[in-house]
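[step 3/7] fold_predict: job queued, chain A
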Amino acid sequence: MNQQPHLTTWQSHSFRAMGSQIVFWLDTADWRAAAPAFAEAQALFSRSESALSRFRPHSELMQLNGRSNQWVTVSDLLWREVSLAVQLAQMTNGRFDPTLLHALHHAGYNQSFEQLVTGVGNGRPQPTTGSLIGRWREIELDAARQAVRLPVGVGLDLGGIAKGDTAQQALNLLAQTGPALVDAGGDLAAGLAPAGCPGWPVALSTPWRETTTPRDLATFWLADGALATSGVDYRSWVQDGLVAHHLIDPQTGQPAQTDLLTATVFAPEAAVAEAWATATLIAGADAGIDNLLEHDLAGLVIGRDGRMLATPAMDHLLQGTNLKI
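[step 4/7] structure written:
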């Protein structure tokens, strides 16, 4: 998803964090107000990446992963993200599952994607330790002590949920200065619409690589909500002669065998959109759309065969675009 050309009163700021290009947008003519807001929001991403990255051995997350079967008192930040991840696993009936760290390693995704595709590091698989199905239910949370106990053999990967929630928090910071939009690697968190517009103009991009020129499926206005896309069209690599990707099916512990290329979900908050986009893609076209309908969520899926399906709520969001469903 990409933003459309912006008005002269819009300020922007970009940087890399959490394996993605992050872009902030603020609707204010006062660049003096925008600069400190951008700095504060970028610092939030820096703190989150430092604490929550699974690619940093000394991050607080990886320290927790190294102390299974022990009660570990955690920071406010890690407590927030682990609690949120467990809630979202329950909400999606485990199709989003934060306990898949070892399965990701086994699939070969044991280093940042930039290193993986450039061949930096050995990229060799690591063995998994028993069944991971439903083990998120075994995570123990003690709110009084703000402590977490992970079951033996379980490692957490907070991944897109941490990025989405950080984007949401960054949006809340920026919104104190004016209407704002956060683009976290193509996943969007939008606040109030900028002045004179019904929303922020954004585009839903095509997942088909064979097109010679990037093509947008639809352009539309986004405000007061978040849009996240999960797909197997980008983060993929060759593992033992087979194409692997980063979306693990919790039922098998292997890269999901799905009939979908991408799943896009609109939700009130970015982490919720992230979880449901992942859950929908893993479920597949028909079951995924059924799950979104059951939870009254706006979603659109694109199949490997080119088929596109959307919920009525997504049809309403895209009303007036040239997208053909």
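[step 5/7] annotate
Residues 57-155 form a domain with the T-fold fold (CATH 1.10.3980.10).
The longest helix spans residues 31-52.
exit 0
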